[in-house]
Backbone:
């Protein structure tokens, strides 16, 4: 028990830094990390729903079917998809953005949402090192 208490006290002393503008709690980036985790979780949830939809369509057709991101977006709101395509085509780097965006729009919708979801959830992870004490250390 004494070792665990000492290690915990060392961790507490290290977490309180001099010059922390948000005080000892460091609440400045916890809200941002929470936002990143929530957004990443939301994107992963929508990606899972799209994967289930593709899975049921594949089972019904007896072949592997992937619905593209553009089809999913047009099913949700076709006018906004057309507006985004016009916006990207009218930019200064439109000739570069258009093939890249079309490649992304052709990918499966669940993959397009899962990759940023995983990256955002990873970016919002807790930075604290966890201290685990085994039973024989107590």
Residues:
């Amino acid at each position: 028990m004494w070792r665990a208490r000492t290690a915990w006290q060392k961790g507490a002393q290290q977490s309180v830094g001099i010059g922390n503008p948000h005080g000892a709690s460091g609440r400045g980036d916890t809200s941002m990390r929470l936002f990143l985790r929530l957004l990443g979780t939301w994107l992963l949830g929508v990606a899972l729903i799209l994967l289930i939809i593709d899975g049921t369509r594949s089972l019904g057709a007896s072949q592997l079917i992937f619905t593209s991101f553009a089809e999913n977006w047009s099913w949700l709101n076709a006018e906004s998809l057309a507006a985004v395509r016009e916006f990207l085509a009218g930019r200064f780097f439109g000739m570069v953005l258009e093939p890249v965006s079309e490649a992304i729009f052709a990918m499966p919708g669940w993959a397009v949402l899962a990759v940023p979801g995983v990256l955002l959830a990873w970016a919002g992870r807790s930075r604290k090192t966890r201290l685990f004490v085994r039973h024989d250390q107590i």
